[in-house]
Amino acid sequence: MTSSTSKTLIAVLQMTLDGRILDSAGGSDWVDSWADGLEQLPPVDAFLLGGGMFSGYQQFWSAMLDDHAAVAEMLGRDPYRRELEYAGVASRAEHLVLSTTLADATWPSARIVRSLEEIRSFKHDGSGIVYVVGGPTLVTSLLDAGLLDELRLIVHPILVGDGRGIVGVLSRPERLELVAAEPAASGRVTLTYRRAPVG
Question: Of the given ranges (47-51, 99-103, 122-126), which has the lowest mean pLDDT?
């Protein structure tokens, strides 16, 4: 964890056993719920995501609060209780959206940030937990900038072969320490990594 004078940035990604967050067709049928990431964290004070993900994220979680029928049709099932809880937390918590192209964020709790330096300033302004929602481009950028404190991986017992990995191209190798491995009844395992000490 970081010191009490700075926020802790934690990314949670759901992946296959062969390290994919999307299959070759862009799907992720192995994910039961996108709310599962929030359940892996202590109480969250803010969310951080990339501009490419924000539009769909905003639409989905807003609908989860306001239009259960539309969400049920999207999901092919009724929303889970943990999804409704996520939507409630997300509606109240601050969201930072990293983007150089978005003009503004219509979601009341969201604001656009233009650079990693703005995120660095936010990180060092007070304490708290920030859920880095993703995706891999943002996680890669945060790793490269030394801003990501923890990476939690929900590993599903499936192999898909080709697809998109959990990170993009790093500027240098990044050593992480395994600090927890927690199996679940479904065959999933949640792995928690922290940045390895330098030296």
Answer: 99-103
